[in-house]
Amino acid sequence: MTTGGVSVKTCSASLSMWMLGGSHERDAAVAREALEQGDTNFKALVEIFVGRKSSHIALIKQAYQKNYGRQLDQDIVRIEPSHPFQKILVAISTSHKAHQADVSQHIAKCDARRLFETGEGSSGAIEEAVVLEIFSKRTISQLKLTFSCYKHIYGHDYTKSLKRGNSTAFEDALKMVVKCILNPPNYYAKTLYASIKGKTVNKGSLVARVIVSRAEEDMDEIQKIFRRKYGMELREAISESIPSGDYRDFLVDLASKTTTAKTISS
Question: Whole-model pTM?
Answer without folding.
Answer: 0.85
